[in-house]
Design brief:
The protein has about 260 residues and is α/β, with parallel strands linked by helices. It has eight helices and ten strands. Helices cover about 35% and strands about 25% of the residues. The strands form two sheets. A six-stranded mixed sheet has the order 6-7-8-3-9-10, with helices on both faces. Strand 9 and strand 10 form a beta hairpin.
Length: about 260
């Protein structure tokens, strides 16, 4: 039986919750190799907000993002994108949700080398058999400073420009939420600052919702809030972060883990 189509996400919904989890748990392995990646995490990501997820290596931050984005399964609890419960979707519906409501930006740019910047940006829509909203596409491309690079292939672009193309690709479908997994990890500080600034602008100017996993206090300083994970649990939260405050909080976590 063909799955019922998901309702499109309105580009500017009433402010609310873009994604949320309740009691989210994820375990890898069993016996002596059992590892609890997520341990009952409950969190909400508000629409039109930029959230950074931080914590030490192995704390569960990437696992949390992958579960909320529908890229990974979970063992118990629930995940919602808007009001849609991911646990109720079959594979076809989950694929459609990721395509239509979720944008992704990863550390690796994941651009196809034979396609131009414009073709890479519009590729997800092309695969879905949809045409881009021309006015929205022009606005995104202009905001990202790519108007004179659309005919270039990835090899003809700098690393920062390639990541900007990846950001535009994530934005072009007007998703409910964008997830970034260390999106500036392969960039130098200047290019990284540019990309983070564009993500910040997408929240302020386009009403986008962004959730970013990062280990970098400077990157976290671009966010509206930072949530901290440790041993698979949500342990702290900071509003209006600065790099200095984030670094101090991370140092406190390190000191606590060494004495525990």
């Amino acid at each position: 039986m063909t799955a019922a189509p998901l309702a499109p996400h309105p580009p500017y919904a009433t402010p609310g919750i873009a994604a949320s989890t309740v009691g989210l748990s994820k375990v890898y392995g069993s016996g002596d190799t059992r590892f609890v990646a997520l341990d009952g995490v409950g969190i909400s990501f508000r629409e039109g907000e930029f959230t950074a997820i931080m914590g030490p290596s192995g704390c569960g931050k990437s696992t949390l993002m992958h579960c909320v984005a529908g890229l990974d399964s979970f063992d118990s609890g629930s995940v919602r994108i808007g009001t849609t419960d991911l646990g109720t979707l079959n594979d076809e519906q989950l694929t459609r949700l990721r395509r239509d409501r979720v944008g992704f930006i990863f550390q690796a740019f994941n651009l196809l080398p034979t396609l131009t910047a414009l073709e890479n940006i519009t590729l997800p829509l092309s695969i879905a058999g949809r045409k881009p909203d021309r006015q929205w596409l022009e606005r995104v491309v202009s905001m990202l400073g790519l108007s004179d690079r659309l005919g270039h292939r990835p090899a003809e672009l700098s690393g920062g420009q390639q990541q900007r193309v990846a950001v535009a690709r994530a934005l072009v479908s007007r998703p409910a939420i964008i997830f970034g997994d260390e999106p500036t990890g392969n960039l130098d500080s200047r290019a990284g600052a540019e990309v983070l600034g564009f993500l910040r602008d997408s929240v302020r100017e386009l009403g986008q919702t962004v959730v970013m996993v990062t280990h970098d206090p400077v990157a976290a300083g671009y966010a509206d809030r930072v949530v901290f994970l440790s041993d698979g649990r949500l342990v702290d939260e900071m509003a209006r972060p600065t790099p200095e405050r984030v670094l101090d909080r991370m140092k406190a976590f390190d000191a606590r883990s060494r004495t525990s």
